[in-house]
Protein: SKP1-like protein
Amino acid sequence: MIEETSSSNRELITLPIVSGNILAKVLQYCENHGGDDKSIAEELRAWDADFAKLDKDTLFQLILAANYLGIERLVDLASEGAWSKVRAESAGDILYGNRYSSDEDQEIRMEYQWVSGCSGKN
Structure:
C-alpha cells in the first residue's frame, strides 16, 4: 500500500483532521494489511483483535481518520473496537464520564430525584 519513493518525488500532503499519532496508527494498520494474503489471515485476525484494544478516544479518532482517508476496513475495525468498549459502559458513564466527583454526583441525583429511575442512591 505504501510505496518507497525517492526524496525528489515526494510531495507534502496536508491531512488537517489527522494528528501525527493517529496517522502513525493508520500507517501501522496499512503496513500489516498491505498484502492481505489469505495464508496469513489467522495472524491478521489476532493482530486486528490486539489493535482494536486501543483506548476509546484513539479508536474514535481512527474512525474519523480512516473515513477521511477512505480506508473502509480500518473504519470497520475501529468501529467494532469502539463499540465493544461503549457496550461495556453504563449509560451514566457514556453521558457523564468522570466529570463529577462522587459528592457532586450524589448532589445531582438528590436534586433530580423526580427523574424516573433516579433514586438518589448509588
Remarks:
- The chain has a mean pLDDT of 79.
- The chain has six helices and no strands.
